[in-house]
Amino acid sequence: MPPQTPQTPPVQQGSQHRTLMGVLSYLGILVIIPLLVARDDSFVKFHVKQGLVLLIIEIAMWFVVGAFLWQFWMFLQLINLVTLVLSIMGIVNVVQGKEKELPLVGSLARHLPF
User: Fold this and answer.
1) HEC per residue, the chain
2) Long-range contacts of 25-28 (CB under 8 A, 24+ apart)
3) For 93, which of 3, 51, 74, 103 is 20 to 30 Å away at the CA?
4) Model pTM?
5) pLDDT 10s digit of each residue in the chain, 114 long?
């Protein structure tokens, strides 16, 4: 008989995949990957929506403040800090397996149509 190799249970592999896709949701433009790959998973979809809202806020601030109101660059830096903190909070929620809404972002993410 050939030696048997230990196999990882499918649940663990799925869990690792969900965690990876959830983390990618909060890494800026990388939100596109879980949006395309794991769209049917409700856990990933929850975090993708929040990640998209964060990305939209960042892009909007760069256009508005960066292009028109460059005098308020400190405000832009504050918004960047807030989105960074919210992204870290989202990643922590993913790693803990929680679907917890982020402050301000969660209520906006609920309205996304997918």
Assistant:
1) CCCCCCCCCHHHHHHHHHHHHHHHCCCHHHHHHHHHHCCCCHHHHHHHHHHHHHHHHHHHHHHHHHHHCHHHHHHHHHHHHHHHHHHHHHHHHHHCCCCCCCCCHHHHHCCCCC
2) 25/50, 25/51, 25/52, 25/90, 25/94, 26/50, 26/51, 26/54, 26/87, 26/88, 26/90, 26/91, 26/94, 27/51, 27/87, 28/55, 28/58
3) 74
4) 0.81
5) 555 555 534 445 678 999 999 999 999 999 999 999 988 899 999 999 999 999 999 999 888 776 676 677 788 888 889 999 999 999 999 999 999 999 999 999 999 888
